[in-house]
């Protein structure tokens, strides 16, 4: 009769102690993002700008629309760090109010363009019969001169929407829609290319073989795997929307003159460029820093979300 095996070595092999929890993908993305100094600096600058323009008006004693004729055309001072304009309005308060509008337009237009581009890209890449018509539509929009098209849209619908929704809300919706429907094409092309590659992968074929519907394939398997290019397109879309809105306002086709945006402030300052050049400097600097910081964040996010680069 053989002896039973000693249970102690078996228990020692089985008891390996607590194992570390698996690292999440987003933790790896954040670790890679932190190594990109430009992206990290851009994120800090962008956070500072956002906090300043949205929290600053509650702490600053001057209102953006307050007129003080006795204090007009003053230079930078302790009372008015950015000076005052031709009506005595505090330029720092107007910069913060203008930043709220410009950033809000950039975010909203980006969401609209991202939604349209992702929808068209997924449909074109997943359904072969829709690929040709949707890509020809994308090529058509890419061939249009965008700035003249934006100018025509603003001129045609500005008065109508201002009369229905009011000057501020109407122009806001018009500019957001105009920018959104003319800037979705790069996202659609990027998403379509990724979907075409993904739908031939083994896990998609396995999900299809067990009877998964097209809707579940897209929402559970396709979209989560194309989030990386979508997020990178989002960062670049915000910068593009801010520049476009500033260009329209600078041309005098954006918001009303008494409704400050960074582009409108630039437009107003050009009349006093020789006498008060700092009025052009501040909104130009705000636009440049915002766009530059967003672009740096987009570069860092692209590197962090690329598994071929992550971990290097």
From TrEMBL:
Residues 1-24 are annotated as: Disordered. Gene3D superfamilies: MetI-like (1.10.3720.10). GO terms for cellular component: plasma membrane. It comes from the Bacteria. It is a multi-pass membrane protein. InterPro entries: BP-dependent_transpt_permease, MetI-like, MetI-like_sf, OppC_N. The chain crosses the membrane at residues 39-60, 103-127, 139-157, 169-191, 230-255, 280-298. This is Peptide/nickel transport system permease protein. It comes from Roseovarius azorensis.
